[in-house]
Amino acid sequence: MSEPIKPLSLHVPEPGCRPGDEPDFSDFEIPKAGQTRMPEIDAEPQDMRDMAFSIIRVLNKRGEAVGPWAQYLDVDRLKQGLEHMMILRALDNRMMSAQRQGKTSFYLQSLGEEAVACASQMALQKGDMNFPTYRQAGLLIANDYPLEMMINQIYSNKEDPLKGRQLPVFYSAKEYGFFSISGNLGTQYSQAVGWAMASAISGDNKIASAWIGDGSTSESDFHAALVFASTYQAPVILNVVNNQWAISTFQGFASGNAPTFAARGHGFGIPSLLVDGNDYLAVYAVASWAAERARRGFGPCLIEHVTYRAGAHSSSDDPSAYRPAGEGAIWPLGDPIERLKNHLIALDAWSEERHEQKSAQVLDQVKQAQKASEAIGTLTSGAHASARNIFEDVYETMPPHLVKQRQEAGC
Amino acid sequence: MKRMTMIEAIRSAHDVAMEKDEKVVVFGEDVGFFGGVFRCTAGLQEKYGKSRCFDTPISELGIVGTAVGMAAYGLKPVVEIQFADYFYPAYDQIASEAARLRHRSAGQFTCPLVIRMPTGGGIFGGQTHSQSPEALFTHVAGLKTVIPSNPKDAKGLLLAAIEDPDPVIFLEPKRLYNGPFDGHHDRPVTSWKKQEESDVDEGYYTIPLGKARIVQQGSDITILAYGTMVHVAQAATKQANIDAEIIDLRTLLPLDIKTIEKSVKKTGRCVVVHEATKTSGFGAELCAIVQELCFYHLEAPIARITGWDTPYPHAQEWDYFPGPKRLAKALLNTMETK
User: Fold this and answer.
1) Which residue from A43, A177, B226, B295 puts its CA 20 to 30 A from B193's CA?
2) Mutate which of B26, B27, B59 to test chain A, going by most A C-beta atoms within 10 A?
3) Roughly how many angstroms between the first and final C-alpha of chain B, as a whole number?
4) Nearest-CA neighbor of A211 among A174, A248, A172, A185?
């Protein structure tokens, strides 16, 4: 080139819209439902690279299930799925209020992305293990974990199974295939791969399901996990939940110039799929496909769930400070509960009236659990696990220096 | 009994552990086919198969992260970080994950995991192959930290670490791998073959974590040491010609406080020695414990002989390394203080 070289300038990404702007998703490419193909379960990664660029969708605008991925679920299972998502939403709603009322210190909701965890759990079997982030409470609900236990944990009350040690919503439920949640983002990803490797080393057929958000894919953990998963062909599903926002940082900071997060898998030779995260049927179908692939020994699979964080990051931030207020309302993939409801109505298996009834029933169920939990206590009322338990479980057997400190603490 | 180097003893520990328990899996960089850059895992892949002893990508984070997942599954991973200097990318997995998993899950998930790493200087390794990071582990609740000083202890302590239900950091003084080293770098290298401490039982035995060893009894002064410094302390004691009691701590956490207290109360004087940098080093913890428990028995301030608070140098290695000359001088000073 003959032009003179100009001084460089730093490129800092900006989201399309900020508060005050008219929200706009016109650049967002969405294939029609049913358009994206389904590869064979043992397809070679290099023969399915296209899957990382075209969103798998099952439910069309009329609520019909269409295309090659629309073959997995019967009506009863769908109704169950709808109920799971409704319970999660009702729980989130009640707990956000409880946090405002001072009954707990913190809360994180799944608003708008309920289908991702709820549908994925249905594709797993007993003995499999999720390595979740803090936004996969749907895994527990879809696995029939008692609501009261969740609320006991949120309230850190005397029946909190984690004895008041963990931040609210940082559940752990081994018997329900739910690994202990860490607040250090991304750490669970390589652990999930190790757990899956252990299944293979032991000659078992259990699989792991790893979870990470769009923002945390920037952590080294994500890359270490992918290289190990690929190298040892670990039976693991590597879920990336792209809900567009990492607190106030839009997904462009983590994706850089990459077209999708799914495409990150290509450099590691990991088959990578892109799925409509607000389409319960699509998430279930893709998760089932990836689970079977892993269980049959065809190795890991990366799934990017495209969704939208309709609520705040947590009870500690206000999204109106960093994104346009109406953005969630025009999110092109809609609302997961509405879409599954419309599908059931289109199948003549549901109605607006039954939905209303179900909403009331679900709300009642959550209220009952909340009431039972509050009878035990909240963060600010009733007893917690004793101070003595701070010193327990640091090691299996308490070493002398901790015994001494416990005595010093007077417990 | 067989005379073994520390490398052979560590290899033997792996071997009998893998023989005894099929849940023991061993992996790390160059650990599988080649048997480790220091040869500590040589022959294991051939004997136990590739799914129980294997090479890994160069990712300490990945090695420890996957090991945490495997431990949670129910296996017993024994992983190697090629040099202690390389563990930093894995620190989050060690300090925030392995160390806290039992506590944060209220015992639902545990992390029985051993992370081995060659530590310390004396081999002209420069700043990236010579560090002694033990204090970065002892500062973390939920970890145990072990440093052997001879082949016999190395095997017994490693087997105890593998049996332990919690994560153990196992630091191997690399200068001791092939022979004892008392800091006299200008003298001929000695071999383990001539040492009693290299008489290693070929079978399975453990040395409990948290029990120090009195290397030599003495009445004038107590030297608290571990790893390579145990040998330096012996040389310095001879050089200073004093009747010192040398304690090899063996495990830094849990620490054998009783043995330390008993000795210092007897001698009334104490010198702490380690290769690691001084400020906020493990020696500071030892000094604090000794003054808390033995203040009215002390006849002199506790002295600390350590590496300087600088990066570990290359050409100036012996100006950095706390050798017998520096230690002997400190011993004599402490003896003279009234």
Assistant:
1) B226
2) B59
3) 47
4) A185
Residue type, B275: E
In a structure prediction context, what are the per-residue pLDDT tens digits for chain A, which is 411 residues long? 789 999 999 999 999 999 999 999 998 989 999 999 999 999 999 999 999 999 999 999 999 999 999 977 899 999 999 999 999 999 999 999 999 999 999 999 999 999 999 999 999 999 999 999 999 999 999 999 999 999 999 999 999 999 999 999 999 999 999 999 999 999 999 999 999 999 999 999 999 999 999 999 999 999 999 999 999 999 999 999 999 999 999 999 999 999 999 999 999 999 999 999 999 999 999 999 999 999 999 999 999 999 999 999 999 999 999 999 899 999 999 999 999 999 999 999 999 999 999 999 999 999 999 999 999 999 999 999 999 999 999 999 999 999 999 999 999
Q: Are residues B54 and B75 in the same domain?
A: yes
3-class secondary structure, A218: helix
* CB < 8 Å from A in window 193-212 of B: 210
Q: Which helix (H) or strand (E) holds A364?
A: helix A352-376
Q: Which residues pair with A238 in a beta bridge?
A: A210, A302
R_g of chain A computed on alpha carbons: 22
> How many angstroms separate the CA of residue B46 from the nearest CA in chain A?
16
Domains of chain B: total: 2
| Shared domain check, B241 and B95 | no
Q: In a mutagenesis test of the B interface, which of A268, A391, A393 is the best target, namely the one with the most B β-carbons within 10 Å?
A: A393
Give the distance, in angstroms, between the CA of residue B225 and the centroid of all CA atoms in the same chain: 11
Provide the 3-class DSSP secondary structure of residue B114.
strand
Residues B324, B241 contacting (CB under 8 angstroms): no
Q: Where are the beta strands (DSSP E) in A215-369?
A: 236-242, 245-246, 249-250, 272-276, 301-306
Q: Which domain holds residue B171?
A: 2-200
Active-site hit among B14, B103, B129, B184: B129
Q: Are B155 and B10 in contact (CB under 8 A)?
A: yes
Closest CA to B140 of B252, B256, B283: B252
- Give CATH 3.40.50.970 domain extents, chain A: 45-316+323-380
Q: In this structure, which topology does domain A45-316+323-380 adopt according to CATH? A: Rossmann fold (3.40.50)
Q: Find the CATH number of the domain harbouring B244.
A: 3.40.50.920
Question: Chain A within 8 Å of B215 (Cβ-Cβ)?
Answer: no
The catalytic residues of A are: 309, 313, 322
Q: Is the sign of the CA dihedral A32, A35, A38, A43 positive or negative?
A: negative
